[in-house]
Amino acid sequence: MIKRYLLSAALLVGSMAFVWAQETRQIAVESASVTNNEVTINGKRVPYKATAGTMPVWDEDGKPMASLFYTYYERTDVSDKTSRPLVISFNGGPGSASIWMHLAYTGPYKLNIDDEGYPLQPYGYSKNPHSILDVADIVFVDPVNTGYSRIVNKEVSRSTFFGVNADIRYLADWINTFVSRQNRWSSPKYLIGESYGTTRVAGLVSQLQNSHWMYFNGVILVSPTGLGLDRNGPVAAANYLPYYAATAWYHGVLPADLQSKDLDQILPEVEKYTLDEVLPAIARGGSLDAAKRKEIASKMAYYSGLSEKVILEHNLAVPTSFFWKELLRDQGLTIGRLDSRYRGIDKSDAGDRYDFDPALTSWNHAFAPAFNLYAKNVLKYETDLTYNLFGPVNPWDRSNDNTGEQLANAMRQNPYLHVMTQSGYFDGGTDYFNAKYNMWQMDPNGKLQDRMSFKGYRSGHMMYLRAEDLKTSNDDIREFIMKTIPAKDQPAKY
Length: 494
Description:
single chain, alpha/beta, Rossmann fold, 2 domains, ten-stranded mixed β-sheet, 38% helix, Carboxypeptidase C (Cathepsin A)
């Protein structure tokens, strides 16, 4: 009898453990872990409350379809939130969690990396003295299947979430609920997105304005995509030359007279040449005179660090993938896509593209351990779910991407709305010159230019990983927020 009882008890304990394990590997539709902390920003103490939790996405019948993980930071020594700005933050992918800007840019903690952004061991984090939490509360949101966010109703079609416009629709509903629950309708509000997150926030500001009647003061585009603006053909080919020049300058492979100049002196010259000479030359295609073709190729070689020969072989239209493989080929090195300061080594020096992006692999190396430690030890959020840096979101419907025009229309309709673009000069994934091109094409008559601004940094896609740019880029956001809060009782009118 005793033996039988012990066996039954053992089976019961084992069964309970199994059930517990299953439950902790499922997302809670609603949850919250609240902690209090403080950070010193620009020499001043900033106390804050952090809420790490989940909140549902509902279907039309009010049933949860998915649950999104978020982390909400509120300054606690501000008694009146009426005029306290709220920043809603997204990363990109699509399929990327909010970890990147959360733990390396605007949040109260930052990644343990060296001053140029390379991983360090032991992995970890420290207080971020440049966070924007002194001037604004921040919520970092993980879209469906990223971070700890998951679909909870398996019968719901993946197309409900995974596409340019589907993503915008359900996230707008979620934001509407979040702002209502937190009683932040009166706050000046800002959207910030990085990479594909810029596509997301460009569409969201329009969706929230036109479908939820929620108006924003600003949108911050960090390393923006093309935002659905047409640039196929000659424009797409020509626009990369300024990025090539910046990268070649960084690696010291430009001719001596150019190399001796500062980057700020070189880029305006290359930009002008791109628009005035390279774009028309590529547009002429086979009709371009042979002597003129050679002249253009020679000047492109001068600016790019590539040979005239390979530029001619590519009909003046050198793909970025070839550039990353070719620039330092004679040194046996490749360069990074998302940050061309990073160098890599391939199995073979031959070929037309690299084996891997040395920038992205370096970042994954640093971020994943640090966030898992941070979530458990600082945010006190307990779960056995895997935090998806990159989640399964395919197939992604990229059709009908009109987000750039949607953002521009939202600006025309809302005189309070301003846009700031932040780009790294060494970003080859979403290059800085195409980010400028976005601004020109969104505003063909020039009437929005006084509400658009551009900031460039001597780093890559995640410019904030470089210590100097972490401070500067946060200062730029801080200044943008303060400048775009209208004076009390200032009417929104033209």
